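Dear colleague,

Following up on yesterday's call, I've attached the two folding results inline so they're easy to grep. Please treat them as preliminary; we haven't cross-checked anything against experimental data yet. The first protein's sequence and structure tokens come first.
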Amino acid sequence: MKMKSWLFALLVLLVAVAGVRWIAVHRAHSKAIKVFHTSRPSMWMMRSRRAGTAPLTFGLDSRWRLTEIKVVALAEWQTNQFASPLWHLVSDSNSAPVSAFTYGQRIRGMRPEVDGAQAKPLDPGTTYRLFIAAGNVSGQHDFDAR
């Protein structure tokens, strides 16, 4: 009888440990990706006084293996959830982990959703929304092109 009690206690302990581990893993995966951006003109743009938008760099809260990146005009997206994206990359398998990327950049392991598509230029003064996903974790960020 004593052996059965020890086996039962061990089984209960194993189930408790598995439950705690499952909760911890799923809680970590359910958080949202935090995104920020910066826009700085290059020295070449400042010297030549060229008009246009400065390169946009997006930063993430940690390194993620992204499965989707999409940029849409916010006003268009608010009226039509299926708005045509200006830039849309997807990953079929294993993308490189990134913590930052530039608008229009090619990211290893990701490809355009439509073969041969390029990032369309951003209009200054227009608000855009960036959607990103890394598996079942996602995030979004609104930004203006300057």
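Below is the second protein, in the same order (sequence, then structure):
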Amino acid sequence: MTSAYKSLRDFIDHKMRMSHIYQPVMLETLFERGGQASMREIAAQILGHDESQLDYYEQIVKNMPGRVLASHGIVQRAGDNYLLAPAVMDLSGEERIDLIRRCREALEVFKEKRGAAIWEHRRPGLGIIPGRARYETLKRAAFRCELCGRAHFLNVA
């Protein structure tokens, strides 16, 4: 056992004081990536643990792309799962690869066209409420704006 290993093990097991998940997630990310990771990579790993964001995007999936793609007969919902419609399941491997490429291209074109505006409503420093607080507020208000009463797009059925 190396002294570095012993020191890190002792830090993690006994000295690390946590007020959030950030430290162990950052260390895990660095260990998994050979000792170096960008802030963005670390942030993505933290995001993967954020249940409030997962709840938020589950509602997005259910109320937006899930409904639209189902209405076009492309997907079907089965409880908490989505399935490609039976006719779509018959695609060849090459057809699937081509469609994945086309989805990626459509995404890149959209991102280039809209730029940062896609996510502006979620950016910090603009007086935006953190995701969990926003979600809990909307949930408490039956997913209606507390100022005007308009139904929010996260309307939970």
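For the second protein, one point worth flagging: The chain has a mean pLDDT of 85.

Best wishes,
A.L.
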